[in-house]
Predict the 3D structure of the following.
Amino acid sequence: MLFSPASVLSEEPRDLDSYRKECADGKTIYCIAIGMEEQKSGNLEAALKHYQSACASHRSRGHLRACTPFLSLARQMDRLDKAGAELEALCKGGDDAVCFYLAKEYFKIAEYHRGYVHLERLCRENFLPPDKADYGPCYHLGDNLKKTGELKRAEKIFNFDCDRDPLGAKPSCDQEEMVRLLIRQDKINGEKNVRELKLIEGAAFGIVVIPLLGLFLLVNGKKRWLLFLRIPAPVLTLLCWAVWESHAKQEFVLRADVFFIIPAVLLALLTAGSAHLRLQAL
């Protein structure tokens, strides 16, 4: 039995000595239960040892679900290479079922690239899992590529699986269409973000350049430039500020940007006032 360690842990009183005896007899759930208790107490070495016992005693039953806490804790302790060495050796020795289930365990603990190595080969070789209800290596490879945002690679994997066996790989065929929609949506969002970024960059450029250009035009002193400086220039500066604000409120917590915006806006207003006085003097 493997699936209810919580039920074992909830029994009162907890007789850890009897748990250890059951664990020594190869009963996986008790090894995991003791490991959980040791891990809660901070005894990671002891926890790892019991998780390893659970993994070793349950490994012969096909899947490797009992190895999840062992590999997870080993990863936390930077010992994953050593912890997975025996399983990796079985995989390299030709046990494709171990390769398949080990890859799925790697995915559970977010070691995606380790899992990809095994599933890419199994996908190419059309490995069939022992569990006939399992979708197979191509599906799991594509699904995890999708989770990590590698949509184009996921699309290729689902497409490969679907083209090879449209009936048997229907889940991959369904996922292929879904990934295509995601790629299309990402492209649309990317184009939208680029347009918004260009607008924001233009607004920042306007806030800085319009007042500085105003100083140059004020020195020039021609009437047409003074007319531009009196109203259009400050209005354009304020419009650029308004566009920038729509972005800044979403992106910035510390508004350091105000240290260049406020002086720029004040400069535009002062330049407008000076231009107005000069026009009245003409």
DSSP finds 15 helices and no strands in the chain. Residues 6-13 have pLDDT under 50 and may be disordered.
